[in-house]
Design brief:
Length: about 100
């Protein structure tokens, strides 16, 4: 118990850091500190990239939905009945043909 108390006192006093045995390994503490800092930094970077990917995926989904909406509106506005209705509203004299379409081979 006395040894344990003595070790704690040496750590709190800072005496242990001045001993020859510990001072040989200061470089190791520095390397471990650098690796710890880099590890934490990479965690923050990966979390930021994950958030950015989620935002871009949402933006992509919104763009896809908008494209589907526009293409369906375009498809419905170019139907023959929609074109005929639009021409009639504008007062055009063009009429629908009653003759079947002739295919040239």
């Amino acid at each position: 118990m006395d040894k344990r108390l003595s070790l704690i006192q040496r750590i709190l006093n800072g005496e242990i850091y001045r001993s020859e045995q510990v001072s040989k390994h200061y470089w190791l503490v520095g390397v471990v500190s650098v690796f710890f800092f880099v590890s934490v930094l990479m965690g923050f970077i990966s979390e930021w990239q994950y958030v950015r990917i989620q935002a871009l995926q949402k933006e992509l989904q919104d763009a896809r939905n908008e494209e589907l909406t526009i293409s369906s509106e375009l498809a419905s506005s170019t139907r023959q009945s929609a074109v005929a209705r639009e021409l009639k509203e504008r007062g055009s004299r063009i009429k629908e043909s009653n003759k079947p379409v002739i295919y040239i081979k």
